[in-house]
Write a structure and sequence with these properties.
By secondary structure, the chain is α/β, with parallel strands linked by helices. It has a single domain, classed as Rossmann fold, CATH 3.40.50.12280. The chain is 33% helix and 19% strand. The protein contains five helices and nine strands. It has a five-stranded parallel beta sheet. A two-stranded antiparallel ribbon has the order 4-6. α2 packs across α5. It is globular. The protein starts with a helix and ends in a 10-residue tail after the last strand. Bound molecules: iron/sulfur cluster (SF4). Iron/sulfur cluster binds next to α2 and α4.
Length: 169
């Protein structure tokens, strides 16, 4: 599963309130010219099957709830990439009456891609960085569930008293 996730991560694109400039650049990445699918990526519309969340635009008050919902629906491990200065800091929309701010005001962010609009090469670079983070997060999760001691069996049943202390080592 780990190998497949690294070779074929599924991405989800969400517009939290952008002017569509960065969205067009993301779509350009999927075109044959930049061809992000050579990294095995597929743009999917289902958060429950996605590994990488690409977000454009500042978080508006209306989109905040949906963004949090999408983020919580994605399975662990997951990586969040902010595309463009609006997603990173609020950009030109910062401190407007209907804007909450950058994405990191609402959910944790792993990669920031600068630019207004961010160029396709920068987005691809950010997504490749996200792949490395995704691999590291996968390793951390696997490490957390490994037990340093084998569980003891007593009378045909697993003795769970010895197990919690050895988690996270
Ligand atoms: S960073 Fe620039 S192009 Fe991207 S959403 Fe903001 S204003 Fe539009």
């Amino acid at each position: 599963m780990k190998r497949f996730r690294k070779k074929s991560p599924w991405i989800l694109h969400y517009n939290a309130g952008s002017c569509n400039g960065c969205d067009i650049e993301i779509l350009a990445c999927l075109s044959p010219k930049y061809d992000v699918e050579r990294f095995g990526m597929i743009n999917t519309g289902n958060p429950k099957q996605s590994d990488i969340l690409l977000i454009t635009g500042p978080v508006t008050k209306r989109s905040r709830e949906r963004l949090v919902e999408i983020y919580t629906q994605m399975p662990e491990p997951k990586v969040v990439v902010c595309c463009g200065s609006c997603a990173s800091t609020g950009g030109v929309f910062r401190e407007m009456y209907n804007v909450e701010g950058g994405v990191d005001q609402v959910i944790p962010v792993d990669v920031y891609v600068p630019g207004c609009a961010c160029r396709p090469e920068q987005i691809i670079d950010g997504v490749v960085k996200a792949l490395a983070i995704l691999e590291q997060k996968t390793k951390n999760i696997e490490k957390a569930v490994k037990f340093s001691n084998d569980p003891i069996e007593e009378d045909g049943q697993v003795n769970r008293r010895v197990m919690p202390a050895s988690i996270n080592k």
